[in-house]
Amino acid sequence: MNWKLAAVLAVTVGCLAWVLWGTDLSVVGRSFAGFHWWVVPGMWLANLIAHSARCVRLRLLLGQRLRFLPMLSLNSVGFLAINVIPLRLGELVRPYLLQEQHGVPWGRSLAALFVERLLDFLSLLFMLALVGVLVDLPEGGVVLGGVDLVHAGQVFAGLVSLAGLGAVLAVALLGEAAIRRVEALVGLASEPLARRISGFLRHFYVALRALAGTPLHALGAIALTGALWGFTVAGVWVGLRGVPGLHLGPAESLVVWTLTLTAFTVLPTPGFFGAHEAGCSAALRLLGVGASQAAATAVLIHLGQLSFTVGIGLLFSAWEGFSLGDLVRRSRRVGGASGGAADAGAGVTSAGVSVGVRH
User: What's the pTM?
Assistant: First the structure.
């Protein structure tokens, strides 16, 4: 077995063992046996709608007329890579596919994905604020591994959002002057790195100007962000309905999803195993669910979500003729090669790198 795969599996098992340690396995068994598996298609449908909203949002942020089905395909394959490759190293797959399939410059894709993630972090901050309104938080907070999950999420998402908004404002207001200043500063240490960063910032500037010039696209991106997280919460609510004796409504489902999202955002474990279950079970315990049933329910919700992501990702991988491992390697290689000067042009494809696709 490849040592990297063995290490990933070991970390995954360790994370799950940490979450499930001390759990009453008889309660877990009864939870699995009594689970209403017919709710899973409902979870998949809600996730499909959320996934579709994410695809349309990315198309708006790119500012290009791209067909929906190819966008659904590359997003599905990209999120499969993000979920199965540790530390979010699969993030480069989507910009790689946008460049290879649609001629979208690498820097422009990264700029769109940067704004996409910024919108998601701002949404997380908003949902964490709602958690404080919807439930009475314990005096010591929602403690997970000695850390207050809500406070840690607010600090982490707040810092990322502040840095992201600062970067957006600097580039938007100062434009070329800010880009040249960054290029000169970074160039003192590394000229190639300076060219890469300036190439990305120029594409970022162009993308921001295009988005500012089409305010309906910007408003659409914000509305779609709300829709995708709303349907994600709906999927969690449907999944929770499948657990016998667990009567939680949409508001409680929002609490569950927010703390789950916070946990695996702060700690991106392989496949989000362990972090997902830890956040989800902590939220359920906060809502009065017993520890063993909370752990079992967390595993069931994660399996329902992951089965959708893996299923649709593998479906489109097979349809497009992709090898996921090869795709990740190529995306990282091209990302390292074309992050800067090559992107100063409009649509550069790295020589010798191609992927067989069907449209």
Answer: 0.83
